[in-house]
Amino acid sequence: MSAKNITVVATFEAKPGKETELKQALIQLVAPTRREPGCINYDLHQLCDSPAKFLFYENWTSKAHLDIHLKSAHIQALLPRVPELAVGMPEISIWEKLC
Question: Could you say which architecture CATH assigns to the domain 6-96?
């Protein structure tokens, strides 16, 4: 799997009243992540009819690059804030591109 491009879908749901704070925290991840080696794209979305829900759509050149990203300082800085800002931990699924 590490030799193939992978796609990551990660969803967050803000706690009531924490939508703006979570949105800002997630936006802060975008610029540094886009500069990381192996990042093809790292796009943040907000659900149109539910402003508490956010989705990252990411593509990486390899699983190894994703693993490095997950250990990055900006991701590690967000993790302690997730229980304060979000309903549970994010749901993350990793997909391998077939064709």
Answer: 2-Layer Sandwich (3.30)
